């Protein structure tokens, strides 16, 4: 029975990949990929520079040699102004590849944010409003040679003949280079006890770039609207709770992620902290309403300037019968370079 499931599920996933060609890749550790989450998060960190790497490998248990893979890298620089405000600059790139046909999305962008202090001072909580924008370029592609069509099926040998003509008139498999514009807002407050709270929202692909692989088609990238909130709430000198929620809407697709990490730290000069948590993901399934898609188990290690996160998605949807609940693996890595001058903590650490 399992041998029968695998090709059926593979075909279904490939169909999903093409049907979702106008959708964005995503990370379960979305809070560990701030540059992709919200342009207003550019510069929202403690230090002068931040470098972030993210990698996601999905459905390897079903697609084996051609799983869904996503790579992301970003770098940010923050500069303090005399008025306790900040300006920040960022640069980021993402590569996403899907299935047998190697459908790929490649993007790169430059970001800018301005962080305005709303309140602060002695015995007062620090409050900031950040506004950010990103301008970038992208290109999508597909390898038609990895696909075969009904005209290439050899009924006598009961197998595809890849040397036969497919009768299709495809282009070169690349979209034109397109411009992409994103913008967002974020408000956050850092409390005296090292707790913090934030709320923000962003709009991606506001210019709706054309991403058609066919020259005669005007398919556009759907705008993606997202909102997110969360915080860190100390319950003792060494223990904190970090709940958060994110909601996204892109074209016909809806997704919500929510959960909580528990953080334990040693409060030493060379701070060592451990995080562990469970997260849930909900999504819509065409016209059949909202369903639970996956549970994500997360563990993270903080050591001075470095933070490493590992997570695994357990499939809880009907797909679990085919992949034995094995979903996606993710790893995140962040490095924070300190400022040259000593300054009061004014940013949350996601």
Provide a quick synopsis of the model:
9% of the residues lie in helices and 51% in strands. The chain contains 4 helices and 16 strands.
**Strand sequence of the main sheet, in spatial order?**
1-2-3-4-5-8-9-10-11-12-13-14-15-16
Query: Mind telling me the C-alpha Rg?
Result: 22 Å
- Helix-and-strand structural type: mainly beta
How many strand segments? 16
Helix/strand order? HHEHEEEEEEEEEEEEEEHE
Instruction: Using the 3D structure, state the CATH architecture.
Output: Beta Barrel
What's the CATH superfamily, by name? monomeric porin ompg
> Tell me about the biggest sheet?
14 strands, antiparallel, barrel
Mean pLDDT: 85
Q: Characterize the overall form.
A: globular
Tally of alpha and pi helices: 4
Q: Tell me the count of domains.
A: 1
Describe the structure.
The protein has 350 residues and is mainly beta. The chain has one domain: Beta Barrel (Porin). It has helices at 2-19, 34-37, 60-63, 320-323; strands at 49-58, 68-80, 86-98, 103-119, 126-141, 153-154, 159-160, 178-190, 196-204, 224-234, 239-250, 253-265, 272-284, 290-303, 306-315, 326-337. The strands form two sheets. A 14-stranded antiparallel β-barrel has the order 1-2-3-4-5-8-9-10-11-12-13-14-15-16. A two-stranded antiparallel sheet has the order 6-7.
């Amino acid at each position: 029975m399992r041998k029968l499931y695998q090709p059926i599920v593979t075909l279904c996933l490939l169909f999903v990949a093409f049907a979702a060609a106008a959708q964005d890749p995503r990370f379960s550790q979305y809070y560990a990929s701030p540059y992709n989450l919200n342009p207003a998060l550019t510069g929202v960190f403690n230090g002068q520079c931040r470098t972030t790497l993210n990698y996601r490998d999905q459905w390897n248990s079903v697609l084996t040699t051609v799983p869904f893979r996503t790579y992301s890298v970003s770098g940010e620089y923050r500069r303090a102004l005399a008025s306790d405000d900040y300006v920040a600059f960022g640069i980021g790139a993402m590569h996403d590849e899907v299935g047998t046909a190697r459908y790929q999305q490649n993007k790169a962008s430059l970001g800018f944010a301005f962080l305005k202090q709303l309140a602060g001072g002695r015995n007062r909580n620090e409050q900031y409003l950040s506004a950010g924008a990103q301008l970038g370029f992208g290109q999508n592609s597909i390898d038609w040679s990895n696909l075969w069509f009904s005209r290439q099926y050899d009924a006598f040998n009961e197998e595809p003949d890849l040397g036969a003509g497919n009768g299709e008139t495809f282009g070169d498999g690349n979209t034109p280079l397109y411009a992409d514009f994103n913008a967002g807002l974020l408000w956050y407050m850092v409390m005296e006890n090292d707790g913090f709270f934030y709320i923000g929202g962003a709009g991606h692909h506001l210019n709706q770039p054309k991403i058609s692989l066919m020259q005669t088609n005007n398919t556009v990238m759907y705008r993606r609207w997202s909102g997110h909130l969360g915080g860190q709430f100390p319950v003792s000198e060494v223990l904190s709770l970090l709940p958060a929620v994110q909601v996204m809407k892109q074209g016909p697709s809806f997704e919500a992620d929510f959960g909580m990490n528990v953080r334990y730290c040693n409060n030493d000069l060379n701070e060592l902290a451990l995080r562990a948590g469970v997260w849930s993901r909900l999504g819509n399934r065409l016209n059949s309403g909202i369903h639970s898609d996956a549970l994500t188990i997360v563990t993270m290690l903080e050591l001075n300037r470095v933070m490493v996160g590992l997570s695994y998605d357990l499939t809880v949807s009907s797909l679990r019968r085919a992949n034995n609940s094995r979903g996606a693996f993710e790893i995140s890595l962040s490095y924070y370079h300190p400022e040259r001058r000593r300054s009061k903590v004014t940013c949350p650490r996601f």
